[in-house]
Design brief:
Strands 1-2-4-3-5-6-7-8 form an eight-stranded mixed sheet, sandwiched between helices. The radius of gyration is 16 Å and the shape is globular. The protein is α/β, with parallel strands linked by helices. The protein starts with a strand and ends with a helix. The protein has a single domain, classed as Alpha/Beta hydrolase fold, catalytic domain (Rossmann fold, 3-Layer(aba) Sandwich), CATH 3.40.50.
Amino acid sequence: MGEMVQIPYNGSSTNGYLALPTSGQGPGVVVLQEWWGLVPHIKDVADRFAAAGYVALAPDLYHGESTTSPDQAGKLMMSLNIAQTQKELDAVIDFLSNHQAVSPKKIGTVGFCMGGQLSLYAASKNDKVNACVVFYGIHPHFEPDLANIKAAVLGLYAEKDPFVPLESVKKLEETLKSLGKTVEIKIYPNLDHAFFNDSRKDAYNKSVYNKEAAEDAWQRVLSLYKEHLQ
């Protein structure tokens, strides 16, 4: 459904996967990758948003690199430059905001794992973001400015996620509420990290995907976007 496009950035350009709705127009959604890179699963998620009526753009934050190795993925994630990545995210949001297919001119962000934290970070740095979705977000270096968030926030987490402790999730929710932000946090019981990813397997070759939780999460995302983007 989608295609790779060039996104003007800092006098040059960066790549992204753009998927358009069959209607020809819709609100914009930035789909932010897991630490693996711009892999087929992330492109598939962008296609799903397009099928739901959104103009979805998934930037390639690793600039052509991707991996299936957790060790390499960790190295790629930690090598992201905060200042450069913020500029790229701003460029991606501007690209969508100015795209002729984006109507109304409203933008949502959604990200998974590393991308989840970047979704929240982007919303805290760019007031063009109207709705922000975080799937089990984590990155030790990207600290969002929660007080600056204008977007409605939806956080989707797993109870038994070893990377994202429940204490940090609860603290995030409490902080956002204390700041008067619009926030909903859903914690799925007895599930692990990456429950939305229907293409991944763990170290024991067992699928981490949970169909029931993933479908519930998807409906929550669409409900948020319907309220705040359409």
